[in-house]
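Structure in, sequence out. Go:
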């Protein structure tokens, strides 16, 4: 199958990479070993003959040892560069992939944030015979709180993807203020949506850097407002250096739930106030859902 072929190609590529790394390592260790042997043999002979002091030989060997460390780092750096280069090629190929979801010729921009969101007999399937949604029909007005609850695989994530037009429904429609979202410009539609995944991406740096990711020019007052909206203000107060606290890769230093909060303020300030905020959380009970601030 195509999936098995891709897995096999990936495995073969990783094997080739490991072989190349092994060759580099063997060459590196061989150079270090030969150089060490030559230095000790020649230097030892010179010391015995009286042409070189033992201290000079030890100092020279130490200096040569300082050269070996950068050599090892250069080999490691080359390996990383090759991996990054492969990732960049894949990203470029992904960027050039044609999208099946595009703006309709008559698509219009939203004049304001949606006041009514409606699913009208919406059905969707990822593959023939594997239906994810069937005749979903409901309406949400601005200011209302709606929790989409169901078992795993019930279509919750699929529904959110349809809201953002990552897919189009096979039947029925999704409307904002009475207009089918297929007639709305994609950028305009997605600018009104804040999506918080189960595993949000945070970057190594300060909390403030992560909060400003979506809007580098945001002021501290706007940051404070956004943190309050996202229920992140109490978390910041508990951190040792408040907004200047350093986070590790992927938000290391925060709990799983705390990492989701900064994902909301990463939207531009206007979206903090006007955007429809949809929480996809499988680990919240009814009391916690009722305590979410908008």
């Amino acid at each position: 199958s195509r999936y098995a072929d891709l897995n096999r190609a990936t495995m073969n590529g990783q094997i080739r990479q490991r072989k190349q790394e092994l060759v580099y390592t063997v060459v590196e260790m061989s150079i270090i070993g030969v150089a060490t042997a030559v230095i000790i043999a020649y230097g030892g002979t010179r010391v015995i003959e009286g042409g070189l002091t033992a201290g000079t030989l030890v100092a020279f060997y130490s200096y040569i040892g300082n050269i070996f460390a950068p050599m090892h780092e250069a080999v490691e750096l080359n390996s990383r560069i090759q991996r990054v280069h492969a990732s960049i090629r894949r990203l470029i190929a992904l960027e050039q992939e044609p999208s099946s979801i595009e703006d309709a010729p008559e698509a219009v921009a939203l004049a304001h944030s949606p006041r009514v969101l409606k699913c009208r007999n919406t059905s969707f399937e990822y593959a023939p015979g594997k239906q994810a949604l069937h005749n979903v029909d409901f309406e949400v007005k601005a200011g209302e709180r709606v929790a989409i609850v169901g078992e795993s695989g019930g279509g919750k994530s699929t529904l959110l993807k349809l809201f953002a037009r990552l897919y189009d429904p096979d039947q029925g429609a999704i409307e904002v203020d009475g207009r089918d979202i297929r007639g709305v410009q994609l950028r305009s539609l997605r600018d009104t949506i804040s999506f918080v995944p189960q595993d949000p991406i945070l970057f190594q740096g300060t909390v403030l850097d992560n909060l400003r990711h979506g809007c580098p020019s945001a002021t501290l007052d706007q940051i404070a407002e956004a943190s309050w909206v996202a229920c992140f203000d109490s978390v910041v107060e508990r951190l040792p250096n408040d907004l200047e606290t350093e986070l590790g890769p992927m938000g290391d230093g925060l709990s799983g739930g705390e990492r989701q909060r900064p994902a909301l303020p990463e939207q531009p300030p206007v979206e903090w106030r006007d955007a429809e905020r949809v929480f996809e959380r499988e680990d919240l009970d009814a009391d916690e859902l009722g305590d979410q601030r908008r």
